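Run log, item B.
One chain of 355 residues. Sequence copied directly from the ordering sheet:
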Amino acid sequence: MEQNVFFLPHEGLKLVELAEFLGAELANSDHADVIVRSVAPINRARAGDVCYILSRRSRDELATCEASAVICDKALVDLVPPHIPVILSSNPHAAFAMAGGLFYPSALRPVAISLGESEIAPSAVIDSSARLEKGVIVEPLAVIGAHAEIGEGTRIGANSVIGPNVKIGRDCSIAAGASVLCALIGNGVIIHNGVRIGQDGFGYAPGPRGMIKIVQIGRVIIQDNVEIGANTTIDRGAMDDTVIGEGTKIDNQVQIGHNVQMGRHCAIVAQVGIAGSTKIGNGVQIGGQAGIKGHVTIGDGVQIAAKSGIMTDLAAGGQYGGVPARPLKDYLREAAQQVSKSKLRGRNPGGKEND
């Protein structure tokens, strides 16, 4: 495989240094000085790479693994060939994620466009009343509106639009082609390419001559350390605010309607649609392509399976799936019964399948 010119390997760390950074333990101190530079999956890990395992299903891949280290739990150490150093962690998945971020810090944010020596590209358009703290980078053709405020260390991507009176905190990344309107953004927020924040929500009242548009005069509030994936849309509130809680991670192509109140540290997978005025608790996980009816409440810690349809309130801590969504065990049992019935209908009384 050709060298990846987009994300170059790290200059190298000793395993003892990596283990310390991860809050993990090096199984054999004799391996302390082994140098690692990158992360890789087990099946193609080579010298200089770190990989990880979560179960005994990785046994076959480990037999041919050439990694310089494997991160795993103590219960799986016996699977690792004796010539491969082991880093012991109670949470190998999180440790591997941390290692990847350490080796490739630039890959944690949207790809930046080089501006040379200037922090403000000559082609950027910035209103004279906008306030930018020191260290703000504005890439080519970005537009920043009147009275906008942007905090230190934030990067505004090429061709992005920051609307009038918008406030963006420190150390944020606004990627190329994004638009942020009618919004207050916290610190450490990552907004990927093509995201649309703060456009008016979908609200109409039937009238004698058709649909009458309802004004949308609320805001979008995005708290600290939120990440929003490419081409996701978050509508501003109608009268109240649309709120995305601290630490929440939203995938690509998600639609969040006006007045949605989303809690802290949620995970929303691609192509989810959340209708207006939905209330979502803390730590909620929603699988891809799920649809959520407006004006429902989803309790803390709820997990929703992919392609589910949420029509009613969901109690905290539950797992749900199906259309309409019900407790996941019920949904899976019903699905298994349907599969069984389908197989029976495909057979004649003699036990042979019909043509």
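Observations after the first pass:
- The chain has a mean pLDDT of 93.
- DSSP finds four helices and 39 strands in the chain.
Flagged for discussion on Thursday.
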